[in-house]
Amino acid sequence: MPRDEELMSEALVRIFENVVLTEEKSLQAGYFSDLSIAEMHTLTAIGPYEARTMTKTAEDLGITTGTLTVAIDRLVKKGYVIRQRDTKDKRVVRISLTRNGKLACRMNSKFHRVLAKHILEGYGPEDREHILKLVSEVDTYIEEQLKRYDNTEDVRKTAREVAQGVKNKEKA
Amino acid sequence: MMGITEDKKKIYDDIIALLAATLEVSPEEIPDDIGVDSGLPFDSLQLYEFVIDLEEKYNIKISDEALDGIKDIGDIVDLVAALSGKEG
Question: Distance of CA A132 to CAs A44, A47, A116, A129, Å?
Answer without folding.
Answer: 23, 25, 11, 5
